[in-house]
Amino acid sequence: MNPRKFLTLLVIGFAMIASPVIASQKGVDHYFKKPEFAGFQLSPNGKMLAALAPLGDKNRMNIVVIDLATRKPRAVTTVNDQDVTGFMWASDERFLFFMDKDGNES
Q1: What's the pLDDT at 67?
Q2: Nearest-CA neighbor of 40 among 12, 8, 15, 63?
Q3: How far apart are CA 40 and CA 87, in angstroms?
Q4: Which residue has the higher pLDDT, 101 or 19?
Q5: 81 CB contacts (<8 Å, ≥6 apart)?
Q6: 58 Cβ contact partners less than 8 Å away, ≥ 6 residues apart
Q7: H helices within 1-106, ranges in order?
Q8: Phi, then psi, of 57 in degrees rounded to 5
Q9: Are 85 and 104 in contact (CB under 8 A)?
Q10: Which residues lie below 8 Å from residue 65, measured CB to CB, with a gap of 6+?
Q11: Are the C-beta atoms of 61 and 85 separated by less than 8 Å?
Protein backbone atom coordinates (compact mmCIF):
# COMPACT_ATOMS: atom_id res chain seq x y z
CA MET A 1 0.00 0.00 0.00
CA ASN A 2 1.13 3.49 -0.80
CA PRO A 3 2.56 5.17 2.38
CA ARG A 4 0.65 8.37 1.68
CA LYS A 5 -2.64 6.46 1.31
CA PHE A 6 -1.89 4.53 4.51
CA LEU A 7 -1.19 7.75 6.43
CA THR A 8 -4.44 9.29 5.15
CA LEU A 9 -6.45 6.25 6.25
CA LEU A 10 -4.70 6.28 9.61
CA VAL A 11 -5.57 9.96 10.21
CA ILE A 12 -9.20 9.39 9.18
CA GLY A 13 -9.39 6.37 11.50
CA PHE A 14 -8.07 8.36 14.48
CA ALA A 15 -10.50 11.19 13.72
CA MET A 16 -13.43 8.77 13.72
CA ILE A 17 -12.34 7.27 17.03
CA ALA A 18 -11.64 10.61 18.71
CA SER A 19 -14.82 12.44 17.63
CA PRO A 20 -17.17 10.71 20.15
CA VAL A 21 -14.63 11.35 22.91
CA ILE A 22 -14.43 15.04 22.08
CA ALA A 23 -18.22 15.32 21.82
CA SER A 24 -18.71 13.77 25.27
CA GLN A 25 -16.32 16.12 27.07
CA LYS A 26 -17.93 18.29 29.71
CA GLY A 27 -17.55 22.05 30.00
CA VAL A 28 -15.69 23.74 32.84
CA ASP A 29 -18.99 24.68 34.54
CA HIS A 30 -19.78 20.99 35.00
CA TYR A 31 -16.73 20.50 37.22
CA PHE A 32 -17.31 23.59 39.37
CA LYS A 33 -21.06 23.39 39.95
CA LYS A 34 -22.39 22.62 43.42
CA PRO A 35 -23.08 18.95 44.14
CA GLU A 36 -26.65 17.72 44.47
CA PHE A 37 -25.82 16.47 47.99
CA ALA A 38 -22.63 16.65 50.10
CA GLY A 39 -21.38 15.87 53.61
CA PHE A 40 -23.73 13.04 54.58
CA GLN A 41 -24.07 12.32 58.31
CA LEU A 42 -26.21 9.72 60.05
CA SER A 43 -28.19 10.87 63.10
CA PRO A 44 -27.15 9.52 66.53
CA ASN A 45 -30.20 7.20 66.64
CA GLY A 46 -29.59 6.05 63.03
CA LYS A 47 -33.08 6.99 61.82
CA MET A 48 -32.20 10.09 59.76
CA LEU A 49 -29.56 11.10 57.27
CA ALA A 50 -28.52 14.74 56.93
CA ALA A 51 -26.66 16.35 54.06
CA LEU A 52 -25.89 19.71 52.50
CA ALA A 53 -27.87 20.53 49.35
CA PRO A 54 -28.28 23.64 47.19
CA LEU A 55 -31.69 25.23 47.88
CA GLY A 56 -33.57 28.43 47.15
CA ASP A 57 -33.31 31.02 44.42
CA LYS A 58 -29.55 31.39 44.82
CA ASN A 59 -28.76 27.65 45.22
CA ARG A 60 -27.17 28.21 48.62
CA MET A 61 -26.01 25.10 50.48
CA ASN A 62 -28.44 24.27 53.30
CA ILE A 63 -29.04 21.29 55.57
CA VAL A 64 -31.54 18.71 54.38
CA VAL A 65 -32.68 15.77 56.53
CA ILE A 66 -33.94 12.53 55.01
CA ASP A 67 -36.10 10.27 57.16
CA LEU A 68 -34.76 6.80 56.36
CA ALA A 69 -38.11 5.09 57.07
CA THR A 70 -40.15 7.23 54.64
CA ARG A 71 -37.26 8.43 52.40
CA LYS A 72 -38.76 11.93 52.45
CA PRO A 73 -36.34 14.88 52.57
CA ARG A 74 -37.05 18.14 54.37
CA ALA A 75 -35.05 21.33 54.57
CA VAL A 76 -33.82 22.19 58.05
CA THR A 77 -32.14 25.50 57.19
CA THR A 78 -33.22 28.09 54.61
CA VAL A 79 -30.25 30.44 54.49
CA ASN A 80 -30.29 32.54 51.32
CA ASP A 81 -27.43 35.03 51.69
CA GLN A 82 -24.52 32.54 52.06
CA ASP A 83 -23.78 28.81 52.17
CA VAL A 84 -23.89 26.58 55.23
CA THR A 85 -20.32 25.27 55.10
CA GLY A 86 -20.58 22.44 57.60
CA PHE A 87 -22.70 20.87 60.31
CA MET A 88 -22.81 18.17 62.98
CA TRP A 89 -25.54 16.48 64.95
CA ALA A 90 -25.83 17.82 68.52
CA SER A 91 -28.62 15.34 69.32
CA ASP A 92 -31.34 13.53 67.39
CA GLU A 93 -33.30 16.79 67.16
CA ARG A 94 -30.58 19.48 66.96
CA PHE A 95 -27.71 20.54 64.71
CA LEU A 96 -24.70 22.74 65.03
CA PHE A 97 -23.89 24.36 61.71
CA PHE A 98 -21.16 26.62 60.42
CA MET A 99 -21.12 29.55 58.03
CA ASP A 100 -18.66 32.19 56.86
CA LYS A 101 -19.23 35.73 58.08
CA ASP A 102 -19.79 37.77 54.91
CA GLY A 103 -17.47 35.47 52.92
CA ASN A 104 -14.64 35.74 55.45
CA GLU A 105 -13.39 32.22 56.04
CA SER A 106 -11.26 33.04 59.07
Answers
A1: 94
A2: 63
A3: 10
A4: 101
A5: 60
A6: 80
A7: 3-23, 28-32
A8: -65, -35
A9: no
A10: 43, 48, 49, 50, 73, 74, 76
A11: yes
Strands 84-89 and 38-42: unpaired
CA distances from 20 to 1, 11, 15, 56 (A): 29, 15, 9, 36
Chain segment 35-84, per-residue pLDDT in tens: 888 999 999 999 999 999 999 889 999 999 999 999 998 999 998 888 99
For 21, counting Cβ atoms within 10 Å of its Cβ (0-12 exposed, 13-18 middle, 19+ buried), the class is exposed
Q: If residue 99 lies in a helix (H) or strand (E), which one and from where to where?
A: strand 95-99
Q: Given pLDDT bands bounded at 50, 70 and 90, which one contains residue 23?
A: low
> Within the chain, what is the greatest distance between any pair of CA atoms?
77
Binned at pLDDT 50, 70 and 90, residue 105 comes out as low
